[in-house]
Amino acid sequence: MASPFSGALQLTDLDDFIGPSQECIKPVKVEKRAGSGVAKIRIEDDGSYFQINQDGGTRRLEKAKVSLNDCLACSGCITSAETVLITQQSHEELKKVLDANKMAAPSQQRLVVVSVSPQSRASLAARFQLNPTDTARKLTSFFKKIGVHFVFDTAFSRHFSLLESQREFVRRFRGQADCRQALPLLASACPGWICYAEKTHGSFILPHISTARSPQQVMGSLVKDFFAQQQHLTPDKIYHVTVMPCYDKKLEASRPDFFNQEHQTRDVDCVLTTGEVFRLLEEEGVSLPDLEPAPLDSLCSGASAEEPTSHRGGGSGGYLEHVFRHAARELFGIHVAEVTYKPLRNKDFQEVTLEKEGQVLLHFAMAYGFRNIQNLVQRLKRGRCPYHYVEVMACPSGCLNGGGQLQAPDRPSRELLQHVERLYGMVRAEAPEDAPGVQELYTHWLQGTDSECAGRLLHTQYHAVEKASTGLGIRW
Predict the structure, then answer these.
(1) How far is 103 from 109, CA to CA, in rounded Å?
(2) Structural domains of the chain ordered from first start
(3) Fewest CB within a 10 Å sphere: which of 48, 268, 270, 338?
(4) What is the distance of C-alpha 284 from the center of its chain?
(5) Which of 86-90, 194-198, 276-280, 310-314 has the highest mean pLDDT?
């Protein structure tokens, strides 16, 4: 069966795609008891283990478990985490929480919040032959029907991710004379790309990656910090689910950087792919078109929720286009009406330039898919990368073609993708600078655009992963 993870995770190198029987190890501390002596281990027919002590007593032994955090901290395989993901982050986990809420007293219930990505919404719209707005409203109706309390649109959190990316680029561009690694700035919204960079190129590439959080993780901050305050709840009393086009987002949500130690909770508790939401609809016996639409929820009073919104610049969030327009205006006083893309070797590697009187002022690129990412990294290593900014996505054709999106067996994949792209483009685009509620939250929640609070809640950091060298890794 083909892995649902992005190519950048599957193809890091030959040693990065191995079975857990060879190098999947977890160091554990074994407590030695004084005078315990030698013990035997008995294996039962059901596979359970029992320790038999010298005095004849027995003790059931727990099986060692490798968690998703262990996988992320390891330099071996990533795809062997798939079985862990299915149990830790799946629609079954959401159903367990909803069922527990039904049985619990009101004071013991958790507030369940679902945040839906625009890419997933477009994929579901294509499957059910709906327009994106009806899909958003009917999906809200479905989630509330099964016990979810609030349903948000991650296009709102993407406003913050785009704005922080814009500011970071301008700051780095102005400071490039003082820092060799200031540019190029590489987009950070794709977790498949981030995992690949951390595991394969480590400290060389990480300084180039934008520290701005992805829309999913900004939404995690919004829900578990701002919204929790509004609801007079601690973060652990909220169960936050996101609906994403990509399995790699499950890995992102599980990063230790997005775990609240004080309240022992993650910013995003569970990530469902578009396909998992479709299975949930099937299991509940619900046809999305048959549902009555429900009004969309908004995170704050200043944000409109009458219809879903999106951003210009393609189905992966529009990072290149928004950063390009902002930089042209902020750095050179040039208003860019239309961004013109120049395809290079393939449609997944394109360039954008800003020129004035024959001089190139800005040189941007987008690199989608593992092949183009490898080429980009090699050019960086050779010191021959001409770009100031690169929008990097692990999936060919970007997020609308993510591994978690719905497929149509009776329809060519290219034709389906084009249809999903058209539906995605039907949604009204909104400039993040002008989006209702955004400036209000910067002022009252984050205490300003460049505050310590904004840095803590809207940015993150990356960690180079050293490859472990073990005898098991020897190829005889």
Answers:
(1) 9
(2) 85-158+214-309 (3.40.50.1780), 159-213+312-430 (3.40.950.10)
(3) 338
(4) 26
(5) 276-280
- Cα Rg of the chain (Å, integer): 24
- Residue indicated by tokens 């890091």: 12
Question: In this structure, what DSSP letter does residue 234 have?
Answer: -
State the pLDDT confidence band at 128, using cuts at 50, 70 and 90: very high
How far apart are the C-alpha atoms of 164 and 401, rounded to whole Å?
25
Q: Is there a binding annotation on residue 270? A: no
Q: Check whether 385 is labelled as a binding-site residue.
A: no
Is 453 among the annotated ligand-binding positions? no
Residues written for the chain: 476
Q: Following DSSP, what letter does each residue of 366-430 receive, concatenated? A: EEESHHHHHHHHHHHHTT----SEEEEESSTT-GGG-TTS---TTS-HHHHHHHHHHHHHTSPB-
> Starting at the edge strand that comes first in sequence, how are the strands of the sheet with 389-393 ordered?
185-186, 389-393, 359-368, 349-356, 342-343
What secondary structure, in 3-state letters, does 158-200 show?
Answer: HHHHHHHHHHHHHHHHHCHHHCCCCCCEECCCCHHHHHHHHHH
| 77 annotated ligand-binding residue | yes
Confidence of residue 72 (pLDDT cuts 50, 70, 90): very low
Would you report the helix, strand and coil content of the chain in percent, each value rounded to 5? 45, 15, 40
Q: How far apart are CA 267 and CA 243, in angstroms?
A: 14
Nearby residues of 335 by Cβ (< 8 Å), 6 or more positions away: 328, 329
Q: How would residue 84 be classed by pLDDT, with cut points 50, 70 and 90?
A: low
> Is 300 annotated among the ligand-binding residues?
no
> What is the rounded CA–CA span in Å between residue 25 and residue 96?
30
Q: Which are the contacts of 172, defined by CB distance < 8 A and separation ≥ 6?
A: 179, 182, 183, 185
Instruction: Indicate the average pLDDT of the chain.
Output: 84
Give the Cα separation of 46 and 347 in Å (integer).
53
